[in-house]
Amino acid sequence: MRSNIGEKCTALGTLSIPFDHERELDPSAARESELYRTLVDLDPDIIVLQQAWYSLHHVVQDFVCPKVALFFQASEHFFHVPHFAGDLVFDAEAYDLVLGIEPWNWPIACQTIEPLVLRNPGEILPRNEAAARLGMDASRPTALVATNGLPGEFEQLRSDYSYLEDEYRVVYSSNYGGGIYPAVDYFNLFDFIVSAGGYNSFWEAVYFGKQAHFVPQPRRFESQQWRIDNCLDYSFECNGADRLVEMILLLG
To answer: What is the rounded distance in angstroms from the CA atom of residue 164 to the CA atom of residue 207?
Structure first.
């Protein structure tokens, strides 16, 4: 039967696959999931997953390529999932690399590397170009108020920090409403940032040394407040994304 992988691919070479239904986490149904069938068709040279370990739990050993699991801060409950067909427990030995991508007292066996940041300093837009792309005046103080959290969180953040308009030109951004992406590309324009304490927004601001205020938002398996309380003074030896590439290349 002809594969329809090519029809699924976008111009960027990415695939959009729906989240697994709970029934597909049953070992007897795992190989019927769209994710599994897509991976079989792709025959990947490497598998790198972040957070969603449970989606491949019953089938990861079917793939002979190197396998890498990445995790940002998560409680021990995240790695032990109750299920009607039997609890799912993360198995570090199923992977060639298991990496914690921020400092955390990990409840699983893993190596910890520096946080992953999407860009390095020389890769983002100069201030004037960033301003031009957003139709703004580069000579004026500019702030960013942004979060990509749960519905309603951005609206609340925007309302709470609208007073910044007295001092700054403010860029409001949320991926739910056509926000700028990636925001880090425009960091040379922003003199002040307000965001949640989620992984990407927090570590991008810390890595680039931005003046920022973080507003923790509640999550089931992570504490944004912990990140804010403990990691503001974190010192990067390098961008964890570069470290990750080096480690993957060593897998052969």
So the answer is: 23
106 with 173, same domain: the answer is no
pTM of the model: 0.90
**Mean of pLDDT values over 208-233:** 96
Asked if 178 and 214 sit in the same domain, the reply is yes
Distances (CA, A) of 50 to 69, 82, 91, 116: 6, 20, 14, 11
Query: Which tens digits make up the pLDDT trace of 5-59?
Result: 334 444 447 888 877 777 778 888 889 889 999 999 999 999 999 999 999 999 9
Same domain membership, residue 81 and residue 54: yes
- Residue 102: name the closest of 120, 118, 117, 80 by CA: 117
- Find the Cα–Cα–Cα–Cα dihedral 113, 98, 198, 106, rounded to 10°: -80
| CA atoms within 13 A of residue 197's CA, in its CB half-sphere | 19
Number of domains in the chain: 2
pLDDT digits (tens, 9 = 90+) for 94-152: 999 999 999 999 999 999 999 999 999 999 999 999 999 999 999 999 999 999 888 89
What does the block give as tokens for 40? 């079989």
- Cα distance between residue 196 and residue 216, in whole Å: 5
Q: Provide the CATH number for the domain around residue 179.
A: 3.40.50.2000
User: Which residues span the domain enclosing 179?
Assistant: 121-235
- The reply to whether 111 and 11 lie within a common domain is yes
Residues 175 and 132 in one domain: yes
Exposure of 238 in the CB half-sphere (CA atoms within 13 A): 8
Taking the CB of residue 240, how many other CB atoms lie within 10 A of it?
23
